[in-house]
Amino acid sequence: MRFSYLSHLECPRDGRSYDAGVPQKVCGCGSPLLARYDLKALAEGVTRDQISAGPPSLWRYHPLLPVSAPEAVVTLGEGLTPIVGLPKYGATIGVPRLVVKDEGLLPTGSFKGRGAAVGVSRAQELGITAIAMPTNGNAGAAWATYAARAGMAALIVMPVDAPEITRKECVVTGAQLYLVDGLIGDAGRIVERAVAQDGWFPVATLKEPYRLEGKKTMGFEIAEQLGWRVPDVIVYPTGGGVGLIGIYKAVLELQELGWIGEKLPRMVAVQASGCAPIVRAFERGADHAEPWQDAATVAFGINVPSAIGDFLILDAVRSTRGCAVAVSDEAILAELAACARGEGVFFCPEGAATLAAVRQLRESGWLDGSEEVLVLNTGAGIKYPNTVTADPPLLTVDGNVQSTGH
Amino acid sequence: MRFSYLSHLECPRDGRSYDAGVPQKVCGCGSPLLARYDLKALAEGVTRDQISAGPPSLWRYHPLLPVSAPEAVVTLGEGLTPIVGLPKYGATIGVPRLVVKDEGLLPTGSFKGRGAAVGVSRAQELGITAIAMPTNGNAGAAWATYAARAGMAALIVMPVDAPEITRKECVVTGAQLYLVDGLIGDAGRIVERAVAQDGWFPVATLKEPYRLEGKKTMGFEIAEQLGWRVPDVIVYPTGGGVGLIGIYKAVLELQELGWIGEKLPRMVAVQASGCAPIVRAFERGADHAEPWQDAATVAFGINVPSAIGDFLILDAVRSTRGCAVAVSDEAILAELAACARGEGVFFCPEGAATLAAVRQLRESGWLDGSEEVLVLNTGAGIKYPNTVTADPPLLTVDGNVQSTGH
Taking phi first (over 0 means left), then psi (-120 to 50 degrees means alpha), and beta for anything else, what does residue A73 get? Predict the structure, then answer.
């Protein structure tokens, strides 16, 4: 077994090939690049049982990851997050076979730890010593953290409205952090100017090929944890869409290896009604999404008016007979509260958007209620204290609780 | 294989036996009760390889846990947290073989999820429908969360100075939450009055026997993850001390089963110099700890002036040729920052207290620097935003980062 079966990088738009052995960014045509593996050799050299006997982290999938050797792995023990049933809450919305993959249980408390672990490992292996990125908060926190672990410099630029804890994470791990009075696109342009001026290596969403490889491990884990099969429907909160693209890529790779059957999960892209460019493009039958004006939502992580991977998201949704739906901030917060109280799972608002979408899709009849539906909770609720109002009574030391019974 | 080999409860002070089949609190003598297992039958019916083939959660140790059947398990996928090396930071303090078990990667972001998962599962199995507890924050958050999952009522009382996010966790999961203008002992007396009045089942630290059983899984995991052996030294931030007592109990159980060798890890109890009753008792050679006056520390989770399990903590420390040390708040915050920047691991202040202790023990010569030292980070740094000051520059959308290089 080779540690990695990475063979080359490929443009999904014009098919051009690129050398994976040196740092690459995007294709000459502007499209993101996708990592390709020698799946034929992999199928001959590796079995799924060997994968399952690996460590309890995303690194068990190392043959399908781009890092060439164990000693190049930069890790905080990330991966193999649990899939947890939500039967009681699911029953209340007419989807009793609802489950969640809880990505809050990763280093830095969000799914961004996956892309950062693999992306930083590969960047370091390719000789990169300083990375720069725009972020809505959690990606910056994750990349700053893994950069610190690798001994790399990091420049992070995030909107002033990004979750406050993510600032602290960047600062405590030693990143150079800037806020911008704007949105993630504005942060991106500031980073591009810094890259041009000071030679940082840019690692913005899909502007380098390896973050996606980390994110796709969600797809590997879903399949393996369900017994090497996929659920009927996978529901994903979509900003830049790397996770959705990654899960779909993972499913296709597992199918090509013969490790899962031919069934595809219907992929659902969920956006907030205050920032829904992918949903609009899906409804219009367009291949690309126009930038969204005046974007705003409580689910800040998906407040992405324009996504470079738009055509890949739309392709994943359509190829799997999925859909794209928008949900209101009110619905997001209501489902977040209902699921925490009913199931003890404290979603982040982006994750809770998937719950609102499931309710909506059941009401519209797109789901008939018999399906096994897996939603991704992309971050820990504890990173978003503002989603909950707590005003408990304050007692003196000789005070008493109210006798309300229980 | 039986699902659980639980046999009875035993008082470690007077040896009395109690029926484990009905709800129990403490011994008539006031001591905590310890769960005992039929280890002879277990050794004949279960192998460590069978354990290792189990699910990637603390429930793989089910034969050594008190829950009698799989369907009684209340779970959010907790356990098997990673052990991560800290070689760079360790080298700077003269202990290059330093590793951390990162308990921040559990549901609710702290090690308290272990005790809550097992405690709530067992409570529900025994017919308990409403639990009440005092807490310094994280235990309340965890028990409220698992109670919600089980459909149980929860009454939580915490000091007004407990971490604010833990209030939100209690409220969002539907617990009845009260704050007290005092310390955890004051919260405890309020809970006792509520229990007497309204019949809540009290689940304060070591006042019921099963939280400890959840906590001991840290010890099982440490041994299994290191290849069924123990490290030279285990360093634990000690408030109520349940984790330290639990790890020691786990080591003894594994030894009795013959699953690990006879070596004991030296157990180190770390406290804050602003609240160090166990350290004072250790230094005086006492078997019990006098309550600490005017307790205060930035590591709020270990701000416990008086612990019911004091004699068990002191016994574990002495029986393993360990020690108890106090560290200053300044040292805690300095090590927290140094380790985040150097290793990308963002400790909670209680966890960082163990780093300060390791430095101190190396400087004093108690550690010679050759030892494999495992510290417990008992919670995610992201639950403690106040340990980090972040005041990043705010740019306009056409602003630029400073060209400082990297």
Answer: beta
Q: For B83-109+212-387, CATH number?
A: 3.40.50.1100
Q: Give the nearest partner residue to B395 out of A146, A179, A198, using CB atoms.
A: A179
**What sign results for the dihedral spanned by CA atoms A70, A74, A75, A80?**
negative
Strand partners, A132: A155, A202
The reply to whether residue A106 touches residue B105, judged by beta carbons under 8 angstroms, is: yes
Q: Which of A250, A256, A257 is nearest to A225 (CA)?
A: A250
Residue of chain A whose alpha carbon sits nearest to that of B390: A168
Question: Phi first, then psi: what are they for A234, rounded to 5°?
Answer: -120, 130
> Is the model's pTM score more than 0.90?
yes
A395 membership: H or E segment, kind and range: strand A394-395
Count how many pairs of residues, chain A against chain B, have C-beta atoms within 8 Å: 252
The verdict on a CB contact (< 8 Å) between A406 and B109 is no
DSSP type of residue A70: G
What is the 3-state secondary structure of chain B? CCCCCEEEEECCCCCCEECCCCCCCCCCCCCCCEEEECHHHHHHHCCHHHHHCCCCCHHHHHHHCCCCCHHHCCCCCCCCCCEEECHHHHHHCCCCCEEEEEHHHCHHHECHHHHHHHHHHHHHHCCCCEEEEECCCHHHHHHHHHHHHHCCEEEEEEECCCCHHHHHHHHHCCCEEEEECCCHHHHHHHHHHHHHHHCCEECCCCCCCCHHHHHCHHHHHHHHHCCCCCCCEEEEECCCCHHHHHHHHHHHHHHHHCCCCCCCCEEEEEEECCECHHHHHHHHCCCCCCCCCCCCCCCHHHCCCCCCCHHHHHHHHHHCCCEEEEECHHHHHHHHHHHHHHHCCCECHHHHHHHHHHHHHHHHCCCCCCCCEEEEECEEHHHCHHHCCCCCCEECCCCCCCCCCC
Chain B contact set for A164 (CB, 8 A): 385
How far does B174 lie from chain A, in Å, by closest CA?
Answer: 5
Q: Which CATH number fits domain A83-109+211-386: 3.40.50.1100, 2.40.110.10, 3.90.190.20, 3.40.50.300?
A: 3.40.50.1100
Say if A186 is an interface residue toward chain B (CB within 8 Å).
yes
Nearest to A281, CA basis, from A298, A295, A297, A269: A269
> pLDDT tens-digit profile of B79-112?
999 999 999 999 999 999 999 999 999 999 999 9
pLDDT at B403: 79
DSSP A154: E
Q: How confident is the model at residue B406 (pLDDT cuts 50, 70, 90)?
A: confident
- As beta bridge partners, residue A159 has A180
Residue A340 tokens read as 């925490």
Chain B residues within 8 A of A381 when measuring between CB atoms: 169, 172
